[in-house]
Specification:
flat; 9 strands; single chain; three-stranded antiparallel β-sheet; Heat Shock Protein 90; six-stranded mixed β-sheet; alpha+beta; Actin, Chain A, domain 4; 2 domains; 5 helices; 247 residues
Length: 247
């Protein structure tokens, strides 16, 4: 016991230091009602537990992202997730009136997860899938990046000291990953960058492995190619970032 107790206190001290300054989250599951004419909606998102401005900013950004994915009824103003689910249902019922023989119902699934947190930055990744008819459903990934010190969401353009310099660096890494010769067009191997010019994706987020760039389906390639992902390790990109990340 004389040797165990000090070691036990030491482990507690390490655990306390590791979690110092990190936000507390609880899982939140929201589902649509179960009925014959209801589309299925399943939402699993984290909820920040603090009463501070950062927690409020995170929870509001997550809510707004969910609303943007579910609102389908133009006649209804949705201010809560439950109202957005009702809007999604109303959109389906309106379509059902027009096409009563349509056998396939709608569905939506939204998952949010904390992918990165340090003393300066926090990132939530929002993955969603929705089916509202047609040949296939639609999947999307969205990153919500936050400046913890300012308690504000960070737009992509605000991540970098010099966006153009970072873009040039990312293009070189993208070409290397996708085996595109530096002397040839960015679309020479089948990509579909508009005007044959490389550009950053709409979705960029912090992860433990590095800064993750995600091009959605159809953004620069066909649906069959799926999302195109590029991870850039922090030691290689630290000079480009406004908010410094431990590497």
């Amino acid at each position: 016991m004389k040797t165990f107790f000090p070691c036990f206190l030491f482990l507690i001290a390490i655990w306390g230091c590791k979690n110092e300054g990190q936000l507390a989250f609880e899982p939140q599951e929201i589902k649509s009602e179960s009925c014959g004419d209801c589309p299925q909606v399943i939402i699993n998102i984290p909820k920040a537990q603090g009463n501070d401005p950062l927690s409020a900013a995170i929870n509001n950004a997550i809510k707004e992202e969910v609303l943007s994915l579910l609102i389908y009824d133009d006649q209804m103003e949705a201010n809560t997730i439950e109202e957005a689910i009702l809007s999604f249902k109303n959109g389906y019922l309106e379509l059902k009136k027009l096409y009563p023989d349509e056998p396939i119902g709608w569905e939506a699934k939204i998952d949010g997860v904390l992918t990165y947190e340090d003393k300066n930055v926090l990132t939530i990744q929002m993955d969603s899938y929705s089916f509202t008819g047609g040949a296939h459903g639609f999947s999307t990934t969205r990153f919500l990046n936050f400046d913890k010190n300012k308690a504000l969401e960070i737009e992509i353009g605000e991540l970098f000291i010099d966006s153009l310099a970072f873009q040039d660096f990312a293009e070189a890494k993208f070409r290397d990953q996708e085996n595109i010769p530096a002397t040839e067009s960015i679309n020479s191997t089948g990509f579909m960058f508009e005007n044959d010019v490389f550009y950053l994706p709409r979705n960029i987020g912090f992860t433990d492995d590095g800064l993750l760039l995600v091009y959605e389906r159809y953004e620069v390639a066909s649906y069959a190619d799926g999302p195109i992902r590029l991870t850039l390790p922090y030691p290689e990109i630290g000079r480009f970032l406004k908010l410094k990340v431990p590497s």
